[in-house]
Specification:
28% helix, 1471 residues, alpha+beta, 11-stranded antiparallel β-sheet
Length: 1471
C-alpha cells in the first residue's frame, strides 16, 4: 500500500471515536450561523483533547487515554441513502488529485520516470535491475514518500459515513448536547422542549434512526451567549439556574461572538474550519500547524458531512438532502464520455454539495469569533469530556460489568473470568462452511450477548484495548454458538483490531480473525460495506507489519466484478483497492514491478468505469513506464490508446496526440481494422488540437515514416524520353541505382578531361560534379544548383500500417536567403518564403497514395528563380485515410464510391522535418575516440548564376554490332539554356569505339536520312588491272588527334565556330566500330563544356551517356610475317618479307549473316608497306561462308626514303590491296581513325620488358641491336563486307579488323587472346645458386642477324659418262640485317647425321674452302662463290652451309646459328 500520513495506530482510534449528538434551538443555530457555521461545525476543529485524560476500569485500575477525539454531529432522523454515500465517495476521490507538477509526462521517450505519487523515481535501461536497486534505496530513505491522498480521503469518508447498525455500537450516540441561546425568552423551557424532543426521537418507535448506545443517554445542556449583543448578567443568572437544576457537571455556559461581523476585516483571525469544510480541496492536504491541533487531526471528516437534521432542514448548509439523486457519473449511463469532454480540466460539479462548497470557497468562517472565543470553545470540549462524558462512560462500563457478572453468575471480575474461559475446556469453533446461514438472527436489546458487545465497544472507544479484546473474544464465542454470523463477524473484526492495538503487543495480530470476518460479511451476510471496512483495517495493519504480499492478496480479494452492495457499483472501491495492491507489490523487499504495473492497469480500468477519468489516466500513465520498451507491443498499444482517449476526454489534447502517435509509430502487430481505428482516433484528436491554434506552426506528423538518410537530391531537368530515332543521352537520373565502381569511373573521366583542359594539371579547387546526392555521395560541401533549373528531392516514405495512407497537397518546406550577384545578402532578408513563388517555385503533389506496408518515394520539385542560399527543411502535407478502403464497424464500402480520385475521409495538415545525420568522422585521434558526425549538406544548395545546359541526342545509334563493324550515326548537340557554350569535348575509356573524323577528312553530307547501304568509308572506283598491286597513300596521326603527348581519350567535338549559341543545335556524324570482343559492352561518354562567360563557382559542366552495345562474332584474323628468300628488291635492296594472313568466319547464322567478303587488305607502317598479293590458290573471290577459313599471302617491302620519314613526323604509309573494284582509302576517315585508335590502345597495353642486368652499357646496346633485327613495325587492316538478310531485305554491313605485327615469325591476332593460367608449380625453399638473371638474347633473336640466300640453276645437265664428277657453281648471298658490324663464319662441312636426310637429299660435297670468316658492315650484302661436286644424278639439297654470326664489337660472344632458308633443291640429270 502507499504511504499514509497517519500510522495505523493513529488511524484506528481516529476512525472509532465517541459520538455525541447535538440538538439546537433555532435561536442557538442563528447565533452560530453568524459565523457561517452550524453548532457541530463550530466545535469540529476543537474536538480533539489537547491533554491526556484518565478513567478507572471495573477493577479500579487507572487507565490513560491519549489524543482522545469526540465526534459531535447534528441529529439525523433518516439513515443516509446508498446513492448519497456513493456520490459522496466519488466526489471525495475526484476532488483529491495529485498536484499538477507532480504527474510525470510518461508519454515522452527517454529515461523511465515512474511517478508513483509526489516523488519521481528515475531509472534507465536495463530497467529491472536498476529499478530494484533504486526502489530499495528509496524504501530505506526517509525522503521517500508515495502517498495517495485520494485513497486516504476515501477511506476516512467511508469509515465516517458508515450507517449505524444493530450488531455493533461503535457509532451509536453516547450523549446528546442540548443547545439553547441566552437571548431566548425562556431558556429553561427551551431546554425542556429539547430534552423531550431527544427523548421522543430515541424512544419513539417511529424513529429507527439514529441509534443510541444505552437507553439512559447522557444529556448535556449548553447555553450559548452572544457576547457582542447579549446581556451577560442574564446569561449568568440563567446558568446559575441551570446548575441548580442539572448540576454543575451537566451544563455549560459557552460565550461566543465577541466581535461583530463588520469588524471582521480589522483583524486577521485564523480560520481552522476551512480545512474541514473543504476537504476535497487538494491545497489542504498538508498538515495544519496553527493552534494546538495535532498533525493527524486535519485528515478526518466529521460525520456532519452526512448529517440530515430533521428539525432544522431549512438552515442546513452542509447537510445532504434525503432525496439525493443517483450519481451522475455511473458507468451504465451512455452520457459518460460526453459529460467528461465538456469539462475543461476538472470534474464538473454535479451536486448541491459541491455547488455549496464552491459558493463557500471565498467565505470566511468564524468572522465573529476572536482567539479568546477559540479558547472558550476548546475549554468547553475539555470540560464536557472530563466532567461529563468520560464519567458517564466509566459508569456505564461498571454497570455493564455488574450486569454481566450477576446474570451469568460469574466471579466479580471479568479479568479473572477470562482466565477460566481461556483455560477451561474449549468447544472447537466451527468453520464458516459448516455454519448455517443465520445472519438474520436478531438479539433483543437487553440480551447479555449484546451487553458484552456494548461493553467491548465502550472499552474500545476509550482505548482500553485489553478489556475490549477480552469482551470481544467472549462475545465472539457466544455469537458463534448461537450461529449469529453477523454479530460473530463484527466481534471477530474488532477482536483482531483490539489485539493489534494492545499496548506492548501481548499477542500476535490474529489475521485469521479478519479473514473469517471478511468471508462472513461477504458470502453469508452479503454486506460488502462491512467487508470493505475489514479489508481497509486489516490491510493497514498488515502493511504496518511489512506483510505487503498478504495485504495485496487481501485487497485483491475484494475487487471482483460481481461484488455489489444494494446496487452500489464496486468499480470505485475496486479501483482504489487495486491501486493499493499495486503499491504493496512495489513496496516489497524485492519489488515486483511488473505486478505493480499490471494492477495499475486494472485499477485504471476500474477508475474509468467509475467515471474517475483523471485517476484512470494517472494509473495508465504510471503503468506505461513499466511496459514501455519491453517489446510487448500489444500491451503498449492498449495502454497508449487508453491514455489517448482519457487525455482527450480530459481535454489534455497534447498528451492525447502524443499517446496516439506512439501507437502509430511503433511496429504494430495489430490487425488492419484495429490500426485503422487507431489512425482515425489520432486524426480526430489531432484535428481538434490543430483547431485550437489554426495560425500556429505546422506540428510534426508521425506517419508515414521518412528515412531521411535515404533522401536523394537531383539537380537538373528530367531526362527526355527517346523520340523516334532520336535517343537522348542517359546522363544522371533518379531512376539509376548508385554504383560505386561506375561513380569512380565517371570521376576519373572528369578528372582526365579537366587535366587536359588545364594543361595536364588538375586545379586544387576541383571537385567532381555531382548531379545526384545520396547517402553514398560526398555531402560535406554545399552543393551548387543553377538558377532556373529544377531541384528534385526524392523523399522515401514507408507506411508501417496495414491500412493505406493518402497524402494530399504534398510539397517541400524550405527557407531561402536571397543574395545579389556579388554574394552579399539582399537588403530585405526573407526567410521561410513559402508564399513567394517569385523566389522559389514549389511543386505540389495533389494526391500521393501509400498502400499498406508499402515503401514509396515521392519526387518533389523546387524551381529557384533567384540566386541565394536555399535550405530544404522538410515536407508538409495533409495526412488522411481513404474513405471506404476497408470495412469499418461492420459496414463495407459503398459500391461505386471510387471515381478516379481517392475519397478522403478525414485529414490533418502537418509536417515532417528532413534531418540527415552526416557520416561519422574517423580521421583524427579525437574523432576516433569520440562519436562525432560530419555535416550533410545535400539539402542546403547554393543557387548560382545561369550556366549553359547541353542536351545530346543520338540518331541511328545501333544497339547491336558485329565485332569490328563500322556504322555511321549522328549526334545532335542542343543548347537549351540562355547562355552560349564552348569548349565541348568528349572523353571515354574506349576511344577505339567511336570517332568524329579527322581534320583532313572530307566530311560526308550531314543527312541522317541517307541510305542504309551507303558506305561509311571514302571510296574510289579502280580498274581491274590494279587488283593485285598496292595503292599507296600516307597520312599523319596528328591529323587524327593522335599526337605526341596527347590524351587519346579526350576528343574535341568539332563544333562549327567552337561555340553553340542558346537555343541552337548542331548535328555531327559519328562513326562507331564494334568492339573486338563479343558480348555486352557498356561504353561511357562524358561530354565536357564550359560557359563563354566564366563563372566563379561553376567552371564547367558535364553530361554523361552510357551506351550499351551488344556485339556478336564476325571474323578472326591471324597474321605472321617472315623473311623472304629472294634478295632482289627495289633498287637492289634485299628488304622484303612475306605476310601470311589467316581469316576465319566465326559468325554463327544467328545474326543472319550469309557470308563475308574480304574487300581490301591494307597495311600501315612507318617503314614497311604491302607490295602485292601472292595468290596461292588463284582464287580471285575472297568470300567466306560460315566457319570457313581463308589464307592470304602478301609481299611486303621497305618504304622508300622519300615515303618513310623519321618517327617524329608521325607519318604513316598506307598501302591498299583491293579485292574488288572499289578502293577504300584507308588513310582517310573513318578507316584511319579506328586504325590509329586501335594502334594507340595497343601501345598503351603493358608490354613485357626484358630485365637488363646493368653490368655494361654495351651489353644493352648489343641487346637492342639484336632485337631490332627481329622486330617489324607493320600493321594490317582487313576491310570486309557482310551480307545480312533481315526482314526479307538484304543489308550490307562493313567493318575492319586490325592486326599489329611486332616480331618476325610470331603470330599476331585481331582479337584479344585469353591468358592461360600458369600451371601450378611446387614451391622451392632454397636459394638458386646464380641469382643474376642472364641477359643473353634468345636464340630466335640471334638467328635473325644474317639473311642467307643460295643462287644456282634449278636443273643441271651433266654427262656423267664423260666426266664422273659434276661441278656446279653456287653463289651464297649473305645480307646483314642489323645496323652494326657482324662477324660471320660460314661452315661448309656436312653435319647431317640423320639417315632420312641422307636418303632423301642424297650426298654431295662442297669443293674448296670449308670455312669462311667474314665481317659484314651494316646492312651489307656479300656473295661467296662456292662449288658443289656431285657424283650421281638425283635431287640434292644445297642448303647445308651453316652460318654463325656475332656482333663484331662485343666481347661477349652471342654466337648462334642463323636461320636456314627454305630447302634449296637442285636436280642433276645425265645427258
Amino acid at each position: 500500500m502507499a504511504q499514509c500520513v497517519q500510522s495505523v495506530q493513529e488511524l484506528i482510534p481516529d476512525s472509532f471515536v465517541p459520538c455525541v449528538a447535538a440538538l439546537c434551538s433555532d435561536e442557538a443555530e442563528r447565533l452560530t450561523r453568524l459565523n457561517h457555521l452550524s453548532f457541530a461545525e463550530l466545535l469540529k476543529p476543537f474536538s480533539r483533547l489537547t491533554s491526556e485524560v484518565h478513567m478507572r476500569d471495573p477493577n479500579n485500575q487507572l487507565h490513560v487515554i491519549k489524543n482522545l477525539k469526540i465526534a459531535v454531529s447534528n441529529i439525523v432522523t433518516q439513515p443516509p441513502q446508498p446513492g448519497a454515500i456513493r456520490k459522496l465517495l466519488n466526489d471525495v476521490v475526484s476532488g483529491s488529485q495529485p498536484a499538477e507538477g507532480l504527474v510525470a509526462n510518461v508519454i515522452t521517450a527517454g529515461d523511465y520516470d515512474l511517478n508513483i505519487s509526489d516523488r519521481s523515481i528515475k531509472a534507465s535501461v536495463p530497467w529491472y535491475s536498476n529499478w530494484k536497486d533504486t526502489l530499495m534505496e528509496l524504501k530505506e530513505s526517509s525522503l521517500y514518500t508515495a502517498t495517495t491522498p485520494w485513497f486516504e480521503s476515501y477511506r476516512e469518508t467511508f469509515l465516517q459515513s458508515m450507517p449505524a447498525s444493530d450488531h455493533e455500537f461503535l457509532n451509536h450516540y453516547l450523549a446528546c448536547m442540548l443547545v439553547a441561546s441566552s437571548s431566548e425568552a425562556e431558556p429553561m423551557e427551551q431546554f425542556s422542549r429539547l430534552s423531550q424532543e431527544q427523548h421522543r426521537i430515541q424512544h419513539n418507535s417511529d424513529y429507527s434512526y439514529p441509534k443510541w448506545f444505552i437507553p439512559n443517554t447522557l444529556k448535556y445542556y449548553v447555553l450559548l451567549h452572544d457576547v457582542s449583543a447579549g446581556d451577560e448578567q442574564r446569561a449568568e443568572s440563567i446558568y446559575e439556574e441551570m446548575k441548580q437544576k442539572y448540576g454543575t457537571q451537566g451544563c455549560y455556559l459557552l460565550k461566543i461572538n465577541s466581535r461583530t461581523s463588520n469588524r471582521a476585516s480589522d483583524e486577521q483571525i485564523p480560520d481552522p474550519w476551512s480545512q474541514y469544510l473543504q476537504k476535497n480541496s487538494i491545497q489542504n492536504q498538508e498538515s495544519c500547524e496553527d493552534g494546538p491541533c495535532t498533525i493527524t487531526s486535519n485528515k478526518n471528516y466529521d460525520s456532519n458531512l452526512l448529517s440530515l437534521d430533521g428539525l432544522d432542514n431549512e438552515v442546513k448548509v452542509d447537510g445532504l438532502p434525503n432525496n439525493f439523486r443517483t450519481h451522475p457519473l455511473q458507468l451504465d449511463q451512455p452520457s459518460e464520455s460526453s459529460n467528461s469532454i465538456n469539462g475543461p480540466d476538472r470534474v464538473k460539479p454535479a451536486s448541491s454539495l459541491h455547488e455549496t462548497k464552491k459558493a463557500n470557497t471565498g467565505v470566511i468562517h468564524g468572522v465573529c469569533l476572536t482567539l479568546t472565543d477559540h479558547d472558550r470553545i476548546r475549554q468547553f470540549i475539555q470540560e464536557f469530556t472530563f466532567r461529563s462524558l468520560l464519567p458517564h462512560i466509566e459508569k456505564t462500563i461498571r454497570q455493564l460489568n455488574d450486569q454481566l457478572i450477576s446474570r451469568k453468575g460469574l466471579s466479580r471480575s471479568l479479568f479473572s473470568a477470562t482466565k477460566k474461559w481461556f483455560s477451561g475446556s474449549k468447544v472447537p469453533e466451527k468453520s464458516i462452511n459448516e455454519l448455517k446461514n443465520t445472519s438474520g438472527l436478531l438479539y433483543p436489546p437487553e440480551a447479555p450477548e449484546l451487553q458484552i458487545r456494548k461493553m467491548a465497544d465502550l472499552c474500545f472507544l476509550v482505548q482500553h484495548y485489553d478489556l475490549a479484546y477480552n469482551c470481544y473474544h467472549t462475545a465472539k464465542k457466544d455469537f458463534l454458538n448461537d450461529q449469529a454470523m453477523l454479530y460473530a463477524a463484527g466481534a471477530l473484526e474488532m477482536a483482531a483490531v483490539s489485539a493489534f492495538l494492545q499496548p506492548g503487543a501481548p499477542r500476535p495480530y490474529p489475521a485469521h480473525y479478519m479473514d473469517t470476518a471478511i468471508q462472513t460479511y461477504r458470502d453469508i451476510c452479503k454486506n460488502m460495506v462491512l467487508a470493505e471496512r475489514c479489508v481497509l483495517l486489516s490491510a493497514e495493519i498488515l502493511k504496518s507489519q511489512s506483510k505487503y504480499s498478504e495485504a495485496a492478496a487481501l485487497l485483491i480479494r475484494l475487487t471482483s466484478e460481481q461484488n455489489t452492495w444494494k446496487g452500489m457499483d464496486s468499480d470505485l472501491r475496486s479501483a482504489l483497492l487495486l491501486e493499493q495492491a499495486a503499491h504493496c507489490f512495489i513496496n516489497m523487499k524485492s519489488p515486483m514491478v511488473r505486478k505493480y504495473a499490471f494492477h495499475m492497469i486494472l485499477a485504471g480500468h476500474r477508475f474509468s468505469k467509475a467515471g474517475q477519468k483523471k485517476h484512470a489516466l494517472r494509473c495508465y500513465c504510471q503503468a506505461m513506464q513499466v511496459y514501455k520498451g519491453k517489446g510487448w507491443s500489444l500491451a503498449e498499444d492498449h495502454i497508449n490508446f487508453t491514455i489517448g482517449r482519457q487525455s482527450y476526454t480530459l481535454r489534455q489534447l497534447d498528451n492525447a496526440v502524443s499517446a496516439f502517435r506512439h501507437i502509430l509509430i511503433n511496429e504494430s502487430k495489430q490487425s488492419a481494422a484495429q490500426q485503422g481505428a487507431f489512425l482515425r482516433e489520432y486524426l480526430y484528436v489531432y484535428k481538434n488540437v490543430s483547431q485550437l491554434s489554426p495560425d500556429g506552426p505546422f506540428p510534426q506528423l508521425p506517419l508515414p515514416y521518412i528515412n531521411s538518410s535515404e533522401t536523394r537530391v537531383f539537380f537538373g531537368h528530367d531526362r527526355r524520353p527517346a523520340d523516334g530515332e532520336k535517343q537522348a543521352a542517359t546522363h544522371v537520373s533518379l531512376d539509376q541505382e548508385y554504383d560505386s565502381e561506375s561513380s569512380q569511373q565517371w570521376r576519373e573521366l572528369e578528372e582526365q578531361v579537366v587535366a587536359v583542359v588545364n594543361k595536364g594539371i588538375i586545379p586544387s579547387g576541383f571537385h567532381p560534379t555531382q548531379y545526384c546526392l545520396n547517402s553514398y555521395s560526398d555531402n560535406s560541401r554545399f552543393p551548387l544548383a543553377v538558377v532556373e533549373e529544377p531541384i528534385i528531392v526524392e523523399v522515401p516514405f514507408r507506411n508501417p500500417l496495414k491500412v493505406p495512407l493518402l497524402l494530399t497537397d504534398l510539397s517541400l518546406l524550405w527557407k531561402f536567403q536571397p543574395k545579389d550577384v556579388n554574394g552579399r545578402d539582399d537588403e530585405e532578408v526573407r526567410e521561410l518564403v513559402t508564399d513567394e513563388p517569385e523566389m522559389i517555385g514549389t511543386e505540389v503533389i495533389s494526391e500521393f497514395l501509400i498502400n499498406s506496408e508499402e515503401s514509396k518515394v515521392a519526387r518533389l520539385k523546387l524551381f529557384p528563380h533567384h540566386i541565394g542560399e536555399l535550405h530544404i527543411l522538410g515536407v508538409v502535407y495533409n495526412l488522411g485515410t481513404i474513405q471506404g478502403s476497408m470495412t469499418v464497424d461492420g459496414i463495407g464500402a459503398l459500391p461505386g464510391c471510387h471515381t478516379g480520385k481517392h475519397s478522403l475521409s478525414m485529414s490533418v495538415r502537418g509536417r515532417q522535418d528532413l534531418e540527415i545525420q552526416g557520416p561519422r568522422l574517423n580521421n583524427t585521434k579525437e574523432e576516433k575516440t569520440s562519436i562525432t558526425y560530419g555535416p550533410d549538406r545535400r539539402l542546403d544548395p547554393i543557387i548560382t548564376e545561369e550556366m549553359p545546359l547541353l542536351e545530346v541526342f543520338f540518331i541511328h545509334f545501333p544497339t547491336g554490332l558485329l565485332c569490328g563493324e563500322i556504322r555511321k550515326a549522328y549526334v545532335e548537340f542542343a543548347n537549351v539554356s540562355k547562355c552560349p557554350l564552348t569548349g565541348l569535348k568528349v572523353v571515354s575509356k574506349h576511344p577505339e569505339f567511336f570517332t568524329f573524323g579527322g581534320n583532313t577528312a572530307v566530311l560526308t553530307p550531314l543527312s541522317p536520312s541517307a541510305s542504309e547501304n551507303c558506305s561509311a568509308y571514302k571510296t574510289v572506283v579502280t580498274d581491274s588491272a590494279s587488283v593485285c598491286t598496292a595503292l599507296v597513300s600516307s597520312a599523319s596521326s596528328i591529323d587524327f588527334g593522335i599526337g605526341i603527348g596527347s590524351q587519346l581519350e579526350v576528343i574535341p567535338v568539332p563544333l562549327p565556330d567552337t561555340v553553340l549559341l542558346p537555343g541552337t543545335s548542331v548535328q555531327l556524324p559519328m562513326w562507331l566500330r564494334g568492339p573486338d570482343e563479343e558480348g555486352v559492352h557498356e561504353i561511357n561518354f562524358l561530354f565536357y563544356y564550359e560557359s563563354v562567360k566564366k563563372q566563379p563557382k561553376i567552371q564547367h559542366r558535364i553530361l554523361r551517356h552510357t551506351a550499351v552495345i551488344c556485339t556478336s562474332r564476325s571474323l578472326n584474323v591471324k597474321a605472321t610475317v617472315c623473311r623472304s628468300n629472294s634478295l632482289e628488291g627495289e633498287e637492289g635492296r634485299g628488304d622484303n618479307m612475306l605476310v601470311f594472313v589467316d581469316v576465319e568466319n566465326t559468325n554463327t547464322s544467328e545474326a543472319g549473316v550469309k557470308e563475308f567478303h574480304i574487300v581490301q587488305v591494307s597495311s600501315s607502317s612507318k617503314h614497311w608497306k604491302l607490295q602485292k598479293s601472292v595468290d596461292l590458290s588463284e582464287n580471285k573471290d575472297a568470300r567466306l561462308a560460315s566457319r570457313e577459313k581463308g589464307k592470304f599471302c602478301f609481299k611486303a617491302i621497305r618504304c622508300n626514303e622519300r615515303e618513310g620519314t623519321t618517327q617524329s613526323s608521325e607519318k604513316y604509309t598506307f598501302a591498299d590491296i583491293i579485292f574488288g573494284n572499289e578502293q577504300i582509302i584507308s588513310s582517310a576517315s573513318p578507316c584511319a581513325d579506328f586504325f590509329y585508335r586501335s594502334l594507340s590502345s595497343e601501345l598503351k597495353r603493358p608490354r613485357t620488358q626484358l630485365s637488363l642486368h646493368p653490368e655494361k652499357h654495351s651489353v644493352e646496346d648489343a641487346m637492342r641491336l639484336i632485337r631490332k633485327c627481329s622486330e617489324v613495325d607493320l600493321n594490317i587492316v582487313i576491310l570486309w563486307k557482310a551480307y545480312v538478310v533481315e526482314d526479307s531485305k538484304q543489308l550490307i554491313l562493313e567493318g575492319q579488323h586490325h592486326v599489329i605485327l611486332h616480331t618476325i615469325g610470331k603470330e599476331a591476332f585481331s582479337y584479344p587472346q585469353k591468358q592461360e593460367p600458369p600451371e601450378m608449380e611446387l614451391l622451392k625453399f632454397f636459394r638458386p645458386e646464380n641469382t643474376t638473371t642472364s641477359s643473353r638474347p634468345s636464340v630466335e633473336q640471334l638467328s635473325n642477324l644474317i639473311k642467307t640466300s643460295l643462287h644456282y640453276p634449278e636443273t643441271f645437265n651433266h654427262p656423267f659418262h664423260q666426266k664422273s664428277l659434276c661441278l656446279v657453281p653456287v653463289t651464297l648471298l649473305l645480307s646483314n640485317c642489323s645496323k652494326a658490324d657482324v662477324d660471320v663464319i660460314v661452315d661448309l662441312r656436312h653435319k647431317t647425321t640423320s639417315p632420312e636426310a641422307l636418303e632423301i637429299h642424297g650426298s654431295f660435297t662442297w669443293l674448296g674452302q670449308t670455312q669462311y670468316k667474314l665481317q659484314l658492315k651494316s646492312q651489307e650484302i656479300h656473295s661467296l662463290q662456292l662449288k658443289a661436286c656431285f657424283v650421281h644424278t638425283g635431287v640434292y639439297n644445297l642448303g647445308t652451309p651453316r652460318v654463325f654470326a656475332k656482333l663484331s664489337d662485343q666481347v661477349t660472344v652471342f654466337e648462334a646459328s642463323q636461320q636456314n632458308s627454305m630447302p634449296a633443291l637442285i636436280i642433276i640429270t645425265d645427258v
